[in-house]
Specification:
- With about 350 residues, the chain is an alpha/beta fold.
- About 45% of the residues lie in helices and about 15% in strands.
- A 7-stranded parallel β-sheet has the order 3-2-1-4-5-6-10, sandwiched between helices. It has a 3-stranded mixed β-sheet with strand order 7-9-11. Strands 8-12 form a two-stranded parallel ribbon.
- Strand 1, helix 1 and strand 2 form a beta-alpha-beta unit.
């Protein structure tokens, strides 16, 4: 038995591949383009493991995907491949349109042809699972109820708009062609292998380097935080038992303002790796101009996946964030290797002013 994973060298994708092979003996064909956030170092522990077959390529390359499907005959495709950073989408939306919309369309076309040609038993068992985001739902006021699967789509950035479009394509391929799809919409993930352009790893990395800790606006933007390994377990469960055509919101039940997150990271670093001068890391916090169209609050209502599939997060934010900070402290070589000149240029561009 085999599954095809797209984007399996990125943050969530690589954690999923590691989790999958820890939990099962089923082979993973891992297709990743290795853009700036894709990193084979994330999968170094799988070196020599015949259950992991890495393929360097674009999930939107129809000829390549058709070849992989025909050769390996996967029983499922799990699609993580995406451009996923809001700030980058504001500076350069074209990549997000090409990857998240056109790439997903090309993948769906390849999968539809493959699935359509399967014999009846394999056809009935096949699944296409599309991994998406809570950002497609837009922004919530502080007192509004959390996003359910019935919430209307109101994306506010080029990134979230492109992901919303990909979600609609997946839904359309189910209702039009009968493709056996499942969709998950997750809240903000955190944990090992997170590229340090996102809030938590950026704070950990900058703090240790003695650099400013940039906080947008007043820092009161609220997000729901989900430990990445809990997310991986949720995807495995949806793939195993989800109802075809359904959407499952995956959240951590951890709504917190960004500034609280930064203070928590600083306090953990004060405990685990104090500054040489004895001062608190929170002294490095610097407020920067808020980004355009910054959504004020996201919150996931994850009752459906708990009630129907029996999944709920194993980690609290307190346990998950401690594990995350400790992982970055324990893996300085990984951090150093991902901080290329291109990464430094990006940070200076985004936060320099």
């Amino acid at each position: 038995m085999t599954i095809l994973v797209t984007g399996g060298a990125g943050f969530i994708g690589s954690n999923f591949v590691l989790d999958w092979l820890e939990a099962t003996n089923e082979t993973v064909i891992n297709l990743d383009k290795l853009t700036y956030a894709g990193n084979l170092q994330n999968l170094a522990s799988l070196a020599g493991d015949a259950r992991h077959v890495f393929v360097h390529g674009d999930f939107g390359d129809a000829a390549l995907v058709n070849h992989l499907l025909a050769t390996h005959q996967p029983r499922a495709v799990v699609n993580f491949a995406a451009e996923s950073h809001v700030d980058r989408s504001i500076h350069g939306p074209a990549d997000f349109i090409n990857t998240n919309i056109v790439g997903t369309f090309n993948l769906l076309e390849s999968v539809r042809a493959y699935w359509g040609a399967l014999e009846s038993g394999a056809k009935a068992a096949f699944r296409f699972l599309h991994v998406s985001t809570d950002e497609v739902y837009g922004s919530l006021a502080k007192t509004e109820a959390a996003f359910t699967e019935e919430h209307k789509y109101e994306p506010n950035s080029p990134y979230s708009a492109s992901k919303a479009a990909s979600d609609h394509l997946v839904r359309a391929y189910h209702h039009t062609y009968g493709l056996p799809v499942l969709t998950t919409n997750c809240s903000n993930n955190y944990g090992p292998f997170h590229f340090p352009e996102k809030l938590i790893p950026l704070m950990i990395v900058n703090a240790q380097a003695g650099k400013p800790l940039p906080v947008y606006g007043d820092g009161q933007q609220i997000r729901d935080w989900l430990y990445v390994k809990d997310h991986c377990r949720a995807i495995r469960r949806v793939l195993e038992a989800g109802t075809l055509g359904e959407v499952y919101n995956v959240g951590g039940w951890n709504e917190k303002p960004n500034l609280d997150i930064v203070h928590t990271v600083c306090a953990l670093l004060d405990e685990l790796k104090p500054r040489a001068d004895g001062k608190p890391y929170k002294d490095q916090i610097t407020y920067v101009t808020d980004r355009p169209g910054h959504d004020r609050r996201y919150a996931i209502d994850a009752r459906k996946i708990e009630q129907q599939l029996g999944w709920k997060p194993a980690e609290t934010f307190e346990t998950g964030i401690r594990k995350t900070v400790q992982w970055y402290l324990d893996n300085p070589a990984w951090v150093a290797n991902v901080q290329s000149g291109g990464y430094k240029d990006w940070v200076n561009k985004q936060y320099g002013s």
